Amino acid sequence: MIAIVDYGMGNVASVRTAFLRLGYEVEITDSMERLEQATHIILPGVGSFQAAVEEINQRNLLKPLRRLAKQKPFLGICLGMQLLFEKGYENGISDGLGLIPGEVDKIETEYILPHIGWNQLQIENNNQPFASFQDKHVYFVHSFQARTDQKYIVATADYGSTVPGIVQNGQIYGMQFHPEKSGEVGVDLLKVFMEETKVDRGQYA
């Protein structure tokens, strides 16, 4: 079972539909019991970094999510990707989950913010297994970006500056764009995440 974390700030229904298309059992939950039973944890997010951290703290999910990310595959989507980092500067300074070294700050660009729309992925160092997604278009909605060491960056996009689009630290992944709104390309990206973090198929039931 794949668990989508419900903390009141995620595009959870569309994310659930995307994983259902791939044939997985999916549950939207903030129950620690169900999160413990899941094979994979998905952390979506729409809104501000500060508000998301407050919601996660109010639901007593901060420490459990940090622990679970060390035990099972973990994917942050959009704001959920930003929460993977140590600190965010949206509406003040807030501590994130600290799963990937780095910080989240406003995109430095002459273009209009927020960055809304389709943009091409540039795969770093021909990174496998994402190499086939070079120049593929995915859908972004954000004003803030991750700032992290190059070794954690799988793919970028250009929006007047280089913006990390996919990040990875072991079995922890992040996608700044919305794969659930990116058509077949987005579904295929989620498929790669699942294949790269494959566990015993019997655990999906």
TrEMBL record:
The UniProt catalytic activity note for this protein reads: 5-[(5-phospho-1-deoxy-D-ribulos-1-ylimino)methylamino]-1-(5-phospho-beta-D-ribosyl)imidazole-4-carboxamide + L-glutamine = D-erythro-1-(imidazol-4-yl)glycerol 3-phosphate + 5-amino-1-(5-phospho-beta-D-ribosyl)imidazole-4-carboxamide + L-glutamate + H(+); L-glutamine + H2O = L-glutamate + NH4(+)
A GO term from the CC aspect:
cytoplasm
Q: What HAMAP family does its record include?
A: HisH (MF_00278)
Organism of derivation: Gracilibacillus boraciitolerans JCM 21714
Ranges for domain Glutamine amidotransferase: 4-185
Protein name per Swiss-Prot or TrEMBL? Imidazole glycerol phosphate synthase subunit HisH
GO terms (molecular function) for this protein are: glutaminase activity; imidazoleglycerol-phosphate synthase activity; lyase activity
Metabolic or biological pathway: Amino-acid biosynthesis; L-histidine biosynthesis; L-histidine from 5-phospho-alpha-D-ribose 1-diphosphate: step 5/9
NCBIfam families hit by this protein: IMP_synth_hisH (TIGR01855)
Keyword Lyase belongs to the record: yes
What does the record give as the function of this protein?
IGPS catalyzes the conversion of PRFAR and glutamine to IGP, AICAR and glutamate. The HisH subunit catalyzes the hydrolysis of glutamine to glutamate and ammonia as part of the synthesis of IGP and AICAR. The resulting ammonia molecule is channeled to the active site of HisF.
Q: What is the lineage of its organism?
A: Bacteria, Bacillati, Bacillota, Bacilli, Bacillales
